[in-house]
Amino acid sequence: MFPMTVHRAVGVDIGGTDTKIGLVRFEGDSDSLRCAKFEIETRLKIPTVADRGPEAVVDDIAAAVASLKPPPIMGIGVGCPGPLSPSRGVVFGSPNLAGWRDVPLRDLIAERTHQPTVIDNDANLAALGEYCASPDSPGDLVLMTLGTGIGTGTIIDGRVFHGQFENASEWGHTIVQPGGLPCPCGQCGCLEQYASATAVVGRYTQLARDSDDSSVRPTVTAADVARLAASGDKVAGEVWDDACRFLATVCVNIQHAVNPGRVLLGGGMSAAGAFLLSRVVRHFDALRWRVHDDFPVIGLSRLGNDAGIVGAARLAVSGADH
Ligand SMILES: [Zn+2]
């Protein structure tokens, strides 16, 4: 039995459009990343004006952290789009952060806030948040955040899995269609070109335009495509089913590469709930091997948009070696 202790930390989740910041209170064993209880005590959202440069973004973050008037905290954890190096605290660059190149983000934020600071890939920290939020579920997990792209994080033995070059677990850039659609990453046929929320809307819009079906309506979100599919729209149904099949394909690959207890689906597409989950599970059951029942439970994320803040704050509590 561990003594119950209270720790606070600030979690920062830098997105291409907005940056979410939260003061998170953890209650439980500080040596374990799995928490009995946590609460986001205060939160705010500020615009990410990336084209003003990283120093201006850091100034905005520092001002926002100060405005939280936090009580004593363990430090600040920052999730940022990658590729990046958690060990060096450097963001190499990201399509979502125009003009950023080899930015020493960790040290910039530490200097401005005078707080110990750690950084990691935003999707890795969202996965860590989900891990903290479900102490009674199987430990090893992969989170796939289905949004503008597909951000993924892998937790093995209670730690973010980084790999030798610190950019492991880019399941969104695993190739599901050799020679397929070009991806901004430079490859062709990446999962995120078929199964991200943006891809689903884009593919539906294009196919609908080419279709002579006059009932086709403009859509804004992947959840709209799901609603159309559920109501019998043939084009929407094909696009949605394709996305779910590709996701299930990668779930099989994850099963064999990682053998996690859970694969969780989050992000904008998960707003479709059971209409997403049941399709992915159905395709997974059809695609998976038959020689052993070592299948992950495929489920929906619990924390949604809060996962990144919680995971970032938890990293600040536990230290960068996690
Ligand atoms: Zn790619």
Describe this entry's structure for a reader:
This protein has 322 residues and is an alpha/beta fold. The chain contains 9 helices and 12 strands. The chain has a 5-stranded mixed sheet, sandwiched between helices. It has a 5-stranded mixed sheet with strand order 10-9-8-11-12, sandwiched between helices. A two-stranded antiparallel ribbon has the order 5-6. Strand 1 (5-14) and strand 2 form a beta hairpin. Helix 3 packs across helix 9 (307-318) and helix 6 crosses helix 7. The longest helix has 24 residues, at 234-257. It is globular, with a radius of gyration of 20 Å. The chain starts with a strand and ends with a helix. The mean pLDDT is 91. The structure holds zinc ion. Zinc ion binds at residues 173, 183, 185, 187, 190. Residues 173, 183, 185, 187, 190 line the site of zinc ion.
**H/E topology pattern:** EEEHEEEHEHEEEHHHHEHEH
Q: Could you give a short account of the major beta sheet?
A: 5 strands, mixed
Overall number of strands: 12
The helix fraction, in percent, is 25-40%
Q: Total number of helical segments? A: 9
Please state how the strands of the largest beta sheet are arranged side by side: 3-2-1-4-7
Bound molecules: zinc ion
Mean pLDDT: 91
Estimated share of beta-strand residues: 15-25%
Radius of gyration: 20 Å
State the secondary-structure class: alpha/beta
- Which residues form runs of ≥5 with pLDDT under 50? none
Q: Which term fits the overall shape?
A: globular
Q: Give the N-to-C terminal Cα separation.
A: 22 Å
